[in-house]
Amino acid sequence: MKKILIIGANGMLGQELVRVFKKDSDYEVVAWDRGDIDVTSEKEVNTKISKLKPDVIINSAAYNAVDKCEEDKKELALAKKLNGSAPGYLAKVAQKIKATLVHYSTDYVFDGQPEIPEPNGCSHRCSTCSLHEDFVPQIGFDEEAKPNPISKYGKTKLMGEKEVAKNSKNFYIIRLSKLFGKPATSEGAKRSFFDIMLEVGKKNKEVKVVDEETSCFTYAPDLAQKTKEIIEAEKPFGIYHIMNGDACTWYEAVLELYKQTKVKTKVTPVLGSEFPRPAARPHYSVLLNTKLNPMRSYKDALKEYLKSTKK
Distance between CA 132 and CA 126 in Å, rounded? Predict the structure, then answer.
């Protein structure tokens, strides 16, 4: 039986990880949240986890107040501790006790300007080339793409990735984007975009939604299940991109949400400048998964989520 330590167990993702692993009798699940361990204390991390000796450490604890840490120095310091230093502490103890570490990162480590691939053999002499006729490029950021965060939040997440890679050999860094799922039970937790927009749509005759920031949604239960599959398949250590299919803007996602819920509210697309925010967001941050079987469309995952909230 493998002992799994899940940190951030009361978060949106953490609670799904606990559920997925507890269903399997091959695992002993230890679920810790902020009251059980302070991941920003290297001494506490080393002492408590060395004593527990888990086979796998899954870190789903993170700071995600993107705009707060852009403007507030204290918030930025906290983000650096939780997103940057803490993963390094976990990596060190994982290496020490020979445990596998799973750590989650984000599409916000990218700048939103992916390279546009060309077909093999392209000479850039388009007048004599037919290679582009049937070529449909995959545009986005794969696991080997060079990070270049444009926000302070993104920089703290990249710092965490580097700390994990520097201090451990047996690790999985999993990047995701636009997480949604059942609300977390942890204090001060954020609600998912779909929950907020469904509430707004039922209260208003018209909503304005940003028709920018194209990326993919990630359904927390699907991500938890995929994490378990990676561990069990003993996939090569390194970086993985996990997200649901069908990239979209915030506006396109709201259209799908209201279509599924039969909400008649008018949805008006607007530029991001309509709702100015302190932190810059990548204009296009679609993650490309080149290492795993693809997951279902976010539309199917959303349908399942909406059904689960009616129970």
Answer: 9
Asked if residues 84 and 163 have their Cβ atoms less than 8 Å apart, the reply is yes
Q: Which strand (E) or helix (H) includes residue 162? A: helix 152-167
Q: How confident is the model at residue 190 (pLDDT cuts 50, 70, 90)?
A: confident
Task: Judge whether 181 and 12 are in contact, CB under 8 Å.
Answer: yes
pTM of the model: 0.93
C-alpha to C-alpha distance for 305 and 311, rounded to whole angstroms: 11
Measured from the Cβ of residue 116, the count of other Cβ atoms closer than 10 Å reads: 8
Contacts of residue 14, Cβ cutoff 8 Å, sequence gap at least 6: 6, 7, 8, 31, 33, 60, 61, 184, 186
Q: Is 70 helix (H, G, I), strand (E, B) or coil?
A: helix
Least confident of 81-95, 109-123, 199-213: 109-123
- pLDDT tens string 272-298: 999 999 999 999 999 999 999 999 999
Domains of the chain: 2-309 (3.40.50.720)
